[in-house]
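Posting this for the archive.
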Amino acid sequence: MKAMLCSSFTGPQDLHIREIADPKPADDEILIDVHAASVSFMDQLLVSGLYQMRPPLPFVPGTEASGVVVAIGDKVTKFAPGDRVACSTWIGGYAERMIAKQSKSVRLPDGVAFEAAATVLHNYGTAYYALVERARAQPGETVLITGAAGGVGLAAVDLSRHLGLRLIAGVGSDDKAALVCSYGASDVINYRSEDIRDRIKSITSGHGIDIGFDTIGGAILEQMARLMSWGGRLMPIGFASGAIPSIPMNLPLLKNYAIIGVFAGAWAERFSTEAARMNDTLMQLLADGNIRPHIDRILPLEEAADAMRAVANRTVQGRIVLKIR
């Protein structure tokens, strides 16, 4: 089969299309004819050797995909050949065929396109786990989402609208404002050109934010730590800036707010039944039109390296999808 192969942790420029053997599903896995795979920031980190885990070389990147089941392992009970599915994984999506755990796969409702389905489980799964499971967000609460036009950020914007939250979107350039507003943001802050503290105090009349959803890290999260309301929840989701912040612990003490870590992938590994239930919920939200993933562009597999570079350069709004078949 044709696959995009990473043979060294030197970045997207060293990815190459190769013919490799079809993978074989283990007892708890399914084999999928891949139709679409989405390109995530995590994919770019993995091939660059910058993620907290390193797969054995060589490997096929791709953390999320969709397609049709062609074979199942001996202990698989939820799926059969011919089922349309989406799956999340650590690696493997940038290929004509991939394997995925039964527990990390979900059947697609009728009418859901492969391209849209390939963008849901990671982005919206992270957002759902953070907002619903970790923050226990309540309608009317104020949430600040940074990196709001990116894949995970825009999913959090979309889901926050669905949950009835008052939504403030943080972006790094003015050209991203229209998109986040179209997804439900009531206010937009450009943290490269505006003072976050002044804007948040003005927008919230000094109350602060109930929920902080941060994908940037560094100085942005350090500023958010000073803007929390009493009893708020500050959630580090990722560190796209490359800088891990330090927060004075007197800040959460003084306002009784919580700092809550969010690592959805690790949670899904430990609590596969609950994660599978969440995936079913997300696909139903998609089928019913309650969430609407934004696809920046659709590219052929051969352009995966260009897609990763665009993600790394933060020129992508939503997700890029690779059309495999």
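Residues 123-264 form a domain with the Rossmann fold fold (CATH 3.40.50.720). The mean pLDDT is 94.
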